[in-house]
Specification:
By secondary structure, this protein is mainly alpha-helical. Helices cover 45% and strands 5% of the residues. It is built from ten helices and eight strands. The chain has a two-stranded antiparallel sheet with strand order 1-2. Strands 3-4 form a two-stranded antiparallel ribbon. Strand 5 and strand 6 form a beta hairpin. Helix 4 runs antiparallel to helix 6 and helix 6 runs antiparallel to helix 7. It is globular and about 65 Å long.
Length: 368
């Protein structure tokens, strides 16, 4: 008998009156909230507008939940349909009972992000790189929902961190199982920090940081999936091909694809839009406006003076002199004895001759 083990929760749902509060759903919601918070901060630091990630997250989550559930039902269809079904067909819609395929969630969730980016005129690749670490952390949090549901566990083990599974969830008395949910959660946390470091240390743009996330996640998922004994694609067994589970083949294909994309785009340098067209981006890296000194319709004194010196027809008076408004109908530049506008390159008039060291009178200064 092992000296230590990880117990499974005795229940995964609580009731607030007649309203069920499910731990699985709470873990998913907590993961989404953390991912949105982190991604919003990263987006602002890149120069994007406040609230953009929150707006994009709405269709992304909706599409992601649909895609994740569809992948689960398609790959585990015998659980709900056919003569060997162990659940009624309508329970394929009961997402709160568990069963979300990350492959479908990311794929269809990406479609939701693409639609939102297209409507706002933003670069999908910029958003993908921004949210990549947040997705990894969200998966780490969401995996604890599998612990509450006592699902996605691995083969028997005698390790001190073996997981207890009760008979109701097909566990055997006195047998411990690999806590694959915990392995994947820890892997995702490490991956999230790796992405944060890589994103700050290297210039990974145009979807390359997201590709690094896909490669890192699928690498871990490949070996973790090999430990699992729960059925995926069947009722009492997992569908395999050439000795590997379907999810392992999916992870392998995505890993190769992510690496190909990562290296194929290493020299890509096109502009990525982080704000809608016509909107001034924030100063990247500090989250502040590029010119926050004054409103757009209010100019600094220095800017006003510069404009007066460079604008054609402006007064050439000394700095600080009272501005002179030329009356309507006055002579053209260079005409009349009182003209104060000189041609470009013409030296300034000297005025009356003075002895060395003698300064101009106040009247002469005003006349100039």
């Amino acid at each position: 008998m092992p000296l230590a083990s990880i117990p499974s929760p005795s229940q995964g749902v609580w009731y607030l009156g007649f309203i069920p509060i499910r731990a699985y759903a709470l873990c998913i919601v907590a993961g989404v909230i953390f991912a949105v918070w982190l991604s919003e901060r990263r987006w602002r630091a890149r120069g994007g507008q406040k609230g953009t990630i929150i707006d994009i997250a709405v269709p992304a989550v909706i599409f992601g939940l649909i895609g994740g559930r569809l992948y689960h039902v398609i790959t585990d269809w015998q659980m709900y349909f056919g003569p060997r079904a162990i659940k009624p067909a309508y329970k394929a819609l009961f997402i709160w009972e568990g069963g979300l395929g990350i492959w479908g969630a990311v794929a269809l969730g990406g479609v939701g992000v693409w639609i939102a980016c297209r409507r706002r005129g933003l670069s999908l690749s910029a958003v993908a790189d921004t949210v990549a670490p947040g997705i990894a952390f969200a998966q780490a949090i969401g995996r604890w929902g599998n612990w509450f549901n006592q699902e996605l566990y691995g083969s028997p083990t005698t390790l001190p961190w073996g997981l207890e599974i009760d008979e109701q969830h097909l566990g055997e008395p006195g047998v411990l199982y690999h806590p694959t949910f915990l392995y994947e959660s820890l892997w995702d946390v490490a991956l999230g920090f790796l992405l944060l470091f890589a994103g700050s240390r290297f210039t990974l743009r145009h979807g390359r940081l997201f590709a690094l996330y896909v490669a890192g996640y699928t690498l871990g998922r490949f070996w973790i999936e090999g430990l699992r004994i729960d059925p995926v694609g069947g009722v009492d067994h997992a569908v395999t091909f050439l000795g590997m589970r379907i999810n392992q083949w999916t992870a392998l294909a995505l890993f190769v694809g992510a690496l190909v994309y990562f290296f194929a785009t290493r020299n890509k340098d096109t502009v990525e839009h982080v704000v809608p067209p016509g909107v001034q981006p924030l100063a990247e890296g500090d989250g502040e406006a590029a010119d926050p000194a004054h409103p757009a319709d209010q100019a600094d004194d220095e800017e006003t003076s510069e404009a007066a010196r460079t604008e054609p027809g402006a007064s050439a008076a000394d700095p600080g002199a009272d501005p002179v408004t030329e009356p309507a109908g006055s002579a053209e530049p260079g005409e009349g004895p009182e003209s104060t506008v000189k041609a470009e390159g013409e030296p300034e008039a000297e005025g009356p001759a003075r002895a060395p060291g003698e300064h101009a009178t106040a009247e002469e200064k005003h006349a100039r």
